Amino acid sequence: MVDALPLLPLQSTVELVGAAVLLVVALVVIFKVIRLAYSIAVKIIVIAIAALIVLYALALAGINPIGLPTAVAPALFGF
Fold it and tell me: Keywords assigned by UniProt (predicted)?
């Protein structure tokens, strides 16, 4: 039987790297779409979606960006 405790640092590292990649991809998409979009409404929608992606990526990295208790947002923190 495999003990899960030694794998926790690896899991944290993988989640942190995944969150960093997700943040970079979100920022690149934001800048590309905003440069192409001429409508204010499209820009607002893109920024709102990107903000949700950034919040999700920060939550994956273990950072609670908006100060929600874990009990309030269990899906956000994977519990």
Answer: Membrane, Transmembrane, Transmembrane helix
Whether 20 maps to a domain, the answer reads yes
Q: Does residue 3 lie in a domain region?
A: no
Neighbours of 60 (CB within 10 A): 19
Reported as a single tens digit per residue, the pLDDT across 25-56 is 878 887 787 777 677 777 788 788 888 887 77
Domain encompassing residue 36 = 9-78
pTM beyond 0.85, yes or no: no
Q: Which pLDDT tens digit goes with each residue over 65-76?
A: 676 666 555 555
Please give the DSSP secondary-structure letter assigned to residue 66: T
